Structure formats: structure tokens, C-alpha cells
Amino acid sequence: MNQPQNNAQNEEVVVEGRRMSIEEYLDQDERKDLLRLLTAGSVDDGKSTLIGRLLFDSKKLYEDQLSALERDSRRVGNAGAGKIDYALLCDGLKAEREQGITIDVAYRYFSTNKRKFIIADTPGHEQYTRNMITGGSTANLAIILVDARTGVITQTKRHTYLCSLLGIRHIVLAVNKMDLEDYSQDVFNRIVKDFTTFIEPFDIPDVRCIPLSALEGDNVVSRSERTPWYEGPSLLEYLETVEIGNDHNLKDFRFPVQYVLRPDLDFRGFSGKVASGIVRKGDRVLALPSGKESRVKRIVTYDGDLDYAFPPQSVTLQLEDEIDISRGEMIVHPDNLPEVGRSFEAMLVWMDEEPMDVKKSFYLKHTTNLTRCKIDHFDYKINVNTLERTATDHLELNEIACATLLTAKEVFFDAYKDDKPTGAFILIDPITNNTSCVGMILRSVSQEDLRESDALPVLDLNKLGIAPEHRPAIRTAVAELRRQGLEILVRE
Questions:
Q1: pLDDT at residue 391, as a whole number
Q2: For residue 453, is pLDDT > 80?
Q3: Contact criterion met (CB below 8 Å) for 328 and 365
Q4: Where residue 467 falls among pLDDT bands split at 50, 70, 90?
Q5: pLDDT of 298-318, one tens digit each?
Q6: Which residues contact 8 (CB under 8 A, 6 or more apart)?
Q7: Strand, helix or coil for residue 450
Q8: Domains plus CATH for the chain?
Q9: How far are the Cα atoms of 77, 215, 351, 439 from residue 436, in angstroms, in the given order?
Q10: Alpha helices in 353-403 (DSSP H)
Q11: Cβ atoms of residues 401 and 394 within 8 Å
Q12: Which residues pair with 41 in a beta bridge?
């Protein structure tokens, strides 16, 4: 890969044969788009090694990093005598190096002349499913590694399912360790056939299969002569050119209000990030939940006003009319509305060490909105290894289920498959303040399909055996909690 060459005398750089000034080069670097990707695979498929090789061969390591890598390879490396263990670039925890596995998500940042990258190296163990969900929640692309000796196994299927659950639209099947199979085309074709057959029902639009050897560097940064039968790009070539611009939903305008900006008497704007769609100066907009309409007077940023804004830009919208809009509410186009309601069906991934208490009322954080919610009922639990559906009444760490939730107030949402920012949410434990669960909304649910009547926590004094003479004290305590912002229903 061509590296920028600096000419100190006249402050110019040469990039891919083109001479440009330092200012031009920095401006070009600033305008590069960003690709977020994750690596997933079984324990010994070589995820960390692949990332290390990618950084090493693309010459994106500093001299002190190279020195530390060579020193650590001699001391704790697993690549063999005299060889560099590229996995050590990502596996930084002591336990990871001792066991030769990845436990926590490791993020690596690098850029080429064409694009910037953030790589999340995620664990392969089933017990670290929540770590993979965390690493993949913002990813545009997933690299799923398989060992050429074993092919598509249970972990491969589990990781593919999780990627589809997260709505990742670009998947690379990296058939690693081809050097151990003499770079056999038959072996590669057999694995590709097994994988494409399995992934077909998930309706993922972009799937690419690449044979490589992370340890030897074949097809990682440049095409390898050892696989003359493979006519596709190297891994880095594909990462630099994959089209991700259409991954954003540019049709449905959604603007969750994060902050009301009032710097002086003459300006009142609504700040936030454009979750989806495009908003233009002069557009007619509608505020939810009030239903009041207005027009966009200005689209304000730190660098000046814009004529239009799109995701994921952070802007401030000034409207022509004085409308009361607060944090947690949403600005949309009046002819394109999200679902508005208090109940929906969603896929849940439990991330808390403590098992779920289905009687507990959680805080639901959705876009900039915060409300109470309860689990109304479960539809089924998914076995992530076999994709088998079973009945359940609660969730434990790393378990995944489909459930119906009931919120205390209306939320404005879309299906996750249509709009990730407005289709995703987290559940927060009201006692420990832990992020207990992440969720992806599937569809709205009508009132007739619910089993609970309210999402607020309930004190049933009869069921609790509270004597009548103690109930006034209970009501006084509940009233004080309500005054402090904690709503509780009392049944007698």
C-alpha cells in the first residue's frame, strides 16, 4: 500500500503518485468516511492475529509498538520461535495473554489513504456473548472467521445469527489458516457453500468470502500468489471500497431532541443528532407527542448554518413558531410518522450478572427518552447455538429472547430493521443502575395482546398483608416518593 511521502523542503506529500500540499492532505484526511467493523469467530480462529497482521502489513504501527510487539512475542507469544505473535496487539489483558483467548472487546483505530477504521475485536466464547453485542452494536460490517480445517461450526452460526440480530448489513466470511490446508480451492469452496446455505434465511444483502492466512499475511493487505484461483479483492481492498453510504435510513426523518438551546432572548433551538432521514431548511415538521407543526427556520452548527442535515450529524433546529418541545420528544415530518405507543415486541439480550426479575419495573432508555417499563410477557427464548425456540419466564446472563414490553408513557419508535437508532433501547436496573439489557424493537403490539395493565411498579397492600392501620403511612411514603419523581401505584 502506498504511504504518504513527505517533502520537508516545500511541505508537500505524495499520495498514490499524486503530489499535494500539507493542507490539501490534511483536508482530504478530514473528509474520509469511517468504517466500523467487528471480528467474530471461534476461540482459535485467529481474530486478534488477523487484526494485528492488518495493522502490521499496512504499516500503521509506531516504532515503540513494534518494539513492544517483538519483545512480548519472545516472552509470551504463541506463534513459534522467532515469529511475531500479532494477536498480542489486541489481547492486552493479562488473562487473555495467559490463556491465549480474547475476553473483552479490544478497539483498534487506523486509517489508509481511502478510509478510517475502528475495529472491534470481540470474544468467541459463548459466555462473552454480551461483549460481542457491545462491540457489534455500532458496526457497519462484520468479519466472521472460520478455521479452514474445521469449516462452519456451531460458533460460526451463533456469531452469524448475532450479526443478523444487530442488523449488520455487510458480512465477510474470512476462511483463515488456508496455509494449513495447502491453499486448497476445494476446501474453500466447500466452506463457502456451507456458509451461504446457512446465511440465506437471514436476508443479509452483502456477503463476501475471502481465503486468507492471517499468520502468513495471504490476502490480508494484498492479493496472494498462493491462491491464484481466487479472483476477488484482498481483505483490506474490500474494506476500503465497500459501500456503506446507503446503510443509513435517509427516508424517514427522526430527530430526538437532546437539549433545548436558549443562549439569549432571541434564540431558541432544539439540539440533537439526526437519527435518520434528511431535514432541509424550510421543511414542514411536526413535534411529538404534542402534534404541533412548524417550519425549519435555521439548521445551526458550530461551523455555521446548513441548508440540510442528515445522519449522523449533530445540529440545532430553530423553528419559525414557538412550540414547547422538551428533551426526549421527537421532531419528524408530518407525512412520515414513527410508531407512537406504550407497547411493543422486541428481541432482548440480557447483560446483567443477576438473573432477570420479571416483576421489576425497569428504566427504558430509548433515543433521548427515559421512561419506566415492565416485561409484559415472553414469546420465546432463543438457543444461540442451535437457534431453537423454547418457552421461558425470565432471562439470565447472555440469554436472548423475544418479549413484549409495556412502557409508562408513550415512546416514538420504528422497527429496528428499518431504523436502528429509533429501534434500539436499553433497560436499566432502577436499584443498581446497571445496564441490564439491550433490545431491538420488532413491531408495535395492540392493547388487546397485553397481559399487564400498567408499566409502573405496583404495591398491592392486600397481597403484601399490610394491615389497615398501617396503610396511611404507606400512602404518605408513596406520595413523598412521587414528589421526588418516583411513581408507584398503590392497590388496596
A1: 95
A2: no
A3: no
A4: confident
A5: 999 998 999 999 998 999 999
A6: none
A7: coil
A8: 1-30 (no CATH), 32-245 (3.40.50.300), 254-332 (2.40.30.10), 339-449 (2.40.30.10), 458-491 (no CATH)
A9: 36, 38, 5, 10
A10: none
A11: no
A12: 145
Residue 8 reports pLDDT greater than 60: no
Instruction: Answer whether residue 355 shows pLDDT above 60.
Output: yes
Q: What is the DSSP letter of 361?
A: P
19-33, 390-404, 410-424: lowest mean pLDDT where?
19-33
User: Distance (Å, rounded) from C-alpha 232 to C-alpha 234?
Assistant: 7
Within 234-312, where are the H helices? Answer: 235-241
Dihedral Cα 141, 147, 151, 156, nearest 10 deg = -40
pLDDT recorded at residue 269: 95
Long-range contact set of residues 115-118: C-beta below 8 Å, sequence gap at least 24: 115/32, 115/33, 115/34, 115/35, 115/239, 115/240, 116/32, 116/33, 116/34, 116/35, 117/34, 117/35, 117/36, 117/37, 117/239, 118/34, 118/35, 118/36, 118/37
Q: What pLDDT, on the 0 to 100 scale, is given for residue 197?
A: 93
Would you call the peptide bond into 233 cis, given omega within 30 degrees of 0 as the criterion? Answer: no
**DSSP secondary-structure letter at 355?**
P
Provide the edge-to-edge strand list for the sheet that holds 141-147. 106-111, 116-121, 34-41, 141-147, 170-176, 206-211
Distance CA 135, CA 421 (A): 16
In the chain, the largest separation of any two C-alpha atoms, in whole Å, equals 90
Question: CA torsion, points 438, 174, 36, 107, in degrees to nearest 10?
Answer: 80
419: three-class secondary structure by DSSP: coil
The three three-digit cell numbers of residue 15, written as one number: 499520495
